[in-house]
Structures are given as C-alpha cells and as structure tokens.
Please model this.
Amino acid sequence: MWVAAFLSATVGIVAGRSIASEVSAHRRERPDRWWNPECDVCDGPLSISLIVCRPQSHRQRWVTPLIPVVTAVVFATMAVSVPTLWILPAFLVFAGAMVALTVTDLDTQLIPNRILGPATLVAVGLLVIGGLIAGEPFAILRAAGGGVAYFAVMFVLALLARGGLGFGDVKLAFLIGVFTGYLGWGHVIVAGIGGFLIGGLVAIFLLVTRLSTRKDAIPFGPFMTLAAIIAVAFGEAITQWYLR
Model:
C-alpha cells in the first residue's frame, strides 16, 4: 500500500505539472495545453519548480508551483484509500480532475466542459474496467446510482437557487457521485453534505471577516471537490462515527 502511495505521489508530481499547464491555458483563454506550462507574462517555458520562467525569470503566481505538490498528496491519499489497486488508475484520474477543476473554478468561477467532459469519460471508463476485473459488479451499479442521485439532487437545487448554483456544479456532482458511490452510499452522503457544510463555514468566515459581501459570488465547485476527497479518504470512518 505504501509503495503504491509513493508511486502515486510521484505520478502526481508529473500530473500536477500537466494540470498547472492546462489551468493556465484555461485562465488565459488559450487552447488546451497539457504539457510544458507557459509563463503568464512572456509565454516562455517555466522552470522545473514552476516558480519562475526560464527566459526572463518572471515570478509566477503562488498557486502554480503548489499544484504539483497538492496533486502528489491527493494521489497518495487515493492510493491508501481505495479497496483494490485495480481501480486506482480511475481514482487517480478522478483526483487529478478534482485538483484541476478546483483551480479553474477559483480562477474563473467556471467548471469547463473541456476538462470535466474528458475527465469523466476516462475516469468512469477506467472505473468500470477496474471494477469488473476486481469482481465488483455491484459496486459499479452502486456507482451509477450514486452519480445519478447526486446529479438529481444538485439539479433540483440549481433550479431552486435560480443562478445560485451553476450547471457545471450539477455535472461535477455526477462525477463525484460515481466515485464516492463506488465506495458506498455513506461516502456519497458525506461528499454531498460535506460540500454544503464546508461551503457554509467558508461563507460565514468571509462575511464575518468582511473579505466578501453578500453580493459577491463564491464558487461552489471547490467545496464539492474538497468534500469529495474527504469522502474518499475518510467517508467510512465519518459514517461509522455518525451512526454510533
């Protein structure tokens, strides 16, 4: 397990550079770029650390070098949380999507289809293949149910909120529901309730500290992705604690 975690973290560093490149391209409204991240100032290649660019040493925004580190940690978390290594590739793609979509939503308050769509197709496809190899057909069916259930709840809430929730959040709910549903219904509930709980606490903090006002839009996607990662890693423990 720990070997898998180490290898996954190593893959996460490489994947993190790719994510940093794509989210930068999305933020600057450029074509998809999944490799060789560019400088925000001169479009030159970045250093290995992603802190500055090579041609003129322009300093990059603080989040850019942090992306590979966070991705490595999240990938390692997936490795020690999944019940079988057959589904680990699917969960790594899922985790990478969570990191990428968190940054893009914070940057632009959008969950882009150009990232969410391919990530969903690849991740769900790998999950089905891995689940069948692992001999867990019922978990695959539960995953489908989790995706549909979370999607339906968010869809209704989006209609009731009248703009308070974007349809990107609804589509993201399907992907999260599938992967948490594979692990168990309790994980789906933890992810769903956790997103609103974390979002509510952050909103209260921002209002109390006057870092934002009631009129400011706060992207909800990052709360969903954080709750999803927590659900994968600690969903069973949280469910058992609540049922005691």
